[in-house]
Amino acid sequence: MASRKINVNEPDAAPESDKDKTLNFKVTDAFKREFKGFAATQGLSMTALLKEGFALSKKKRQK
């Protein structure tokens, strides 16, 4: 039987496109260690750091 994590903030009728998706890409072990360590020192998850970095890069490049 498949299990599903339940997010109490997620509406029951959320469209499929609003659900979290997995990104799959490869990085070196050294990069992963540095990225994970930096995120931890900032009190962020790796996902939050990636999203923040993307937002900053997008803002910078759209000027």
Secondary-structure element series: HH
What is the share of helical residues? 40-55%
Q: Would you tell me the overall average pLDDT?
A: 85
Question: Beta fraction of the residues?
Answer: under 5%
Unreliable parts: none
Shape: extended
Span from first to last CA? 49 Å
Class per helix and strand makeup? mainly alpha
Number of H/I helices: 2
Number of strands: 0
Rounded Rg: 15 Å
**Main sheet: strands, sense, barrel:** none
Q: Could you walk me through the main structural features you see in this protein, from its secondary elements to its overall organization?
A:
There is one protein chain. The chain has 63 residues and is mainly alpha-helical. The chain has a domain at 28-61. The chain is built from two helices and no strands. The protein has helices spanning 29-41, 46-61. The longest helix is centred in the C-terminal third of the chain and has 16 residues, at 46-61. The chain is extended, with a radius of gyration of 15 Å. The protein starts with 28 loop residues before the first helix and ends with a helix. The mean pLDDT is 85.
